UniProtKB/TrEMBL annotation, chains A, B:
It is found in: Cytoplasm. Belongs to the class-II aminoacyl-tRNA synthetase family. ProS type 3 subfamily. HAMAP family: Pro_tRNA_synth_type3 (MF_01571). It comes from Anaeromyxobacter dehalogenans (strain ATCC BAA-258 / DSM 21875 / 2CP-1). GO terms for cellular component: aminoacyl-tRNA synthetase multienzyme complex; cytoplasm. Keywords: Aminoacyl-tRNA synthetase, ATP-binding, Cytoplasm, Ligase, Nucleotide-binding, Protein biosynthesis. The gene is proS. This is Proline--tRNA ligase.
Amino acid sequence: MASAETAIRPTRAENFSEWYLEVIKAADLAESSTVRGCMVIKPWGYALWEHVQRVLDGMFKATGHVNAYFPLFIPLSLLEKEAAHVEGFAKECAVVTHHRLEARDGKLVPVGELEEPLVVRPTSETIIGESFARWVQSYRDLPLLINQWANVVRWEMRTRMFLRTAEFLWQEGHTAHATEQEAIDETMQMLGIYARFAEEWMALPVVQGEKTASERFPGAVRTYCIEAMMQDRKALQAGTSHFLGQNFARASGIQFQDEKGALTHAWTTSWGLSTRMIGAMIMTHGDDDGMVCPPRLAPQQVVIIPVIQKPEVREQVLAWCAELKRELEAQSYAGAPVRVHLDARDVQGAKKSWEWIKKGAPIRLEVGPKDIEKGAVFMGRRDRKPREKQSVPRGELVAGVGALLQEIQDALLRRARAVRAEHTRPIDTKDEFYAYFTPPATVRPNDPTPIHGGFALAHFSGDPAVEARIKEDLGVTVRCIPLEPGEPGTCPFTGQPSPKRVVWAKSY
Amino acid sequence: MASAETAIRPTRAENFSEWYLEVIKAADLAESSTVRGCMVIKPWGYALWEHVQRVLDGMFKATGHVNAYFPLFIPLSLLEKEAAHVEGFAKECAVVTHHRLEARDGKLVPVGELEEPLVVRPTSETIIGESFARWVQSYRDLPLLINQWANVVRWEMRTRMFLRTAEFLWQEGHTAHATEQEAIDETMQMLGIYARFAEEWMALPVVQGEKTASERFPGAVRTYCIEAMMQDRKALQAGTSHFLGQNFARASGIQFQDEKGALTHAWTTSWGLSTRMIGAMIMTHGDDDGMVCPPRLAPQQVVIIPVIQKPEVREQVLAWCAELKRELEAQSYAGAPVRVHLDARDVQGAKKSWEWIKKGAPIRLEVGPKDIEKGAVFMGRRDRKPREKQSVPRGELVAGVGALLQEIQDALLRRARAVRAEHTRPIDTKDEFYAYFTPPATVRPNDPTPIHGGFALAHFSGDPAVEARIKEDLGVTVRCIPLEPGEPGTCPFTGQPSPKRVVWAKSY
Ligand SMILES: [Zn+2]
Ligand SMILES: [Zn+2]
């Protein structure tokens, strides 16, 4: 590979959405399947998800939640119970109608029609509500703090790997409380956990905020989210937390006797985070050489690449590397032993090195006979240029590996924050707003839309018609009303008073 | 509760299958849902599964396997590819035929018919084979060692919680190899891992063996399994490992260039273990007072129960218990910190104690002001009678908790082995065989069938017609042909020579 070239073509600037698919391919994260809209999550991509699961699961348990598992199928009659909810999901439901296959004229056909069709869960409020109604009798049974790790299906027409697929993996928390305040506190607590996870573990700076009515979860009273900026300056919703009021409790009959003996409906919440997060990591940290894994979630944090030119040194080099691996694994980082991979395949060193760059391993260590003589390794960091490598004494490397991984983690977060800061702009007039989000002209008519815009912090009086108009004109929506305090002002679209600036952006 | 009574009614002897359901209820492990044949796995049951997952996943990774995730849906055309396979599963497939719901006359109806119906995966050989065909090109790509944690659906007509449900959770391993021998070695390695997991972690003694043709996995060349004896003397298949030969590789087109450049089909395996294991734990270790969790997989290994008669001592007792909890958690057992729960609910001590007996917590510690004065706790072990409790000095308990948990684990395995030994019998004549499996008369005509039979070790010449006849007459089948070496002999049913004794039993 010539030094001016990058490993991924097109580059981000050339065609961001093509670049995204090429990174997924080059890093071996996932692939499309023959099943319309469904993806196969390959081992390197799934391992990222396993670390997301491990860390989040720990955070949920530390705040008193327990896991359970509810049916994949939801009878139509259950789904129908909450009107806004069913309306929100009806258009994208996979429906099971038969329970048997029979060969007819050499072809399999569905037979055994079900009396009541079953929907493959798009989310589980209704099916879980049905259990909660049985589990909750008295105030003593509350709060009920449940989480589920599961697959869900939403029949999207336009799909995109990790970001929008017919089936995806996620966790969905569902809780019931005796008072409105407790349910609101839970909603905000979980939003805070998502924000902390995003920043501390994914190196993903996020804005915490509330959705406007038009972007609210179907059936919720209030929807909160964390929003992140991708490198193409679009927003990505990275986790949502819903205060459901008593809507679902009424629909499902979740009632309890309070301390005075009166029967009242519980207050519920739900909150979810999905495999979409892997898409967020790619589009936040990835560069023109491929994936960049945040060290805390990287499936392998250190990869040792033996560089063996002559077969006679092979054994000695491999033995030295194996010992180095053991020493590094004895170190710990972010509460777990350092994850080290020794790539002993009989493949050229430079080729292996590029593979690990594309996969985004945080630290690469090249080890040849000369390095061994010096008692050193040749180290490359994924947050720096591929050729920016340095010799590091073995002992220094081993002792400092945890600190080094955190240094890379910090660098990724700093970089992502800088990108976001650079492309976040307070805007006070409608003209400026429209100009900000209008794509610059392309050189050739078939070129992809150049990267433009970002987060506009503009006042908004809250009129849904204005939102709808801007969405139609520019494809821009209110991503959230930030939780952070802000100053009141004037809405540039209506001239009406606005309590604070909101975040406007194009989004995934 | 009077001392002669037990917590679960009916008892095992009175009605084993009713007892089973009552234990699930009393231990709060699971419940039926309104979705036909589907269950809700409640937190205590799901936590057992989480520990099964954690330990097995570690064993899989230690043998070089990685996790991935494949689509929930299988297009009919893919499922059809392996003839025996589709025939085996066609009768129990949930089929998705529509992708939208529409309100008509105030009722939701499925619309948007799919061009090709999709089957909800009953197992994933065909959908994974489709990916493997892309991933495998050269002998260098082999072996491919993949595992998936997933839900699967088999539309069973008669369901039973944990043992046979329309949807269940499992892991399914799928591997591809360059040679027949490597694939066979993998098949046997995974069978061995299941056997080791069952014995060391679940305290479940198992027979490893091969299935006869009639019980083989649809499409497999050979199916191996581990079989355990439940307390009603029926067999339960607790994990299967299949050598698939080149059948699925041919069906899916998994081909590779070998070292000489010739194109050949890979050899594949698959192996699975499911939430059925929780049913096995209940029926192996449970007693007339409820669930008995094997300590290594118990969600909580030690439960501290403050016994507070007077409110004024509450704070002091709780503080002492909290400190005890911290000390116990600093101990480790089976490679992890001891899992300790402090049950601080404002509920009578005896009531709490019975709840934890029914849930099967291995060690209960009752702590009142007098125990604190003595610097001791009042300890109950779940492998002993509920009232067989003893005072143990605090320091001794803390230092010895790991050893004590292993003592209980060993006791459970020993007990299960003794039950199996007592009800395993070599049988050499057809009459004795029929007598062994014929239910004794019931006292009243409506009484449940008394527990009888067990494992019959009888010779078998291998004639499928004999198997079919015995299944029809007695509901007894060959559970497996044990791997352990045996002596040749004569089949009592045909008079033909038999290579070795096989295990016959009624089964779940
Ligand atoms: Zn948002
Ligand atoms: Zn078996």
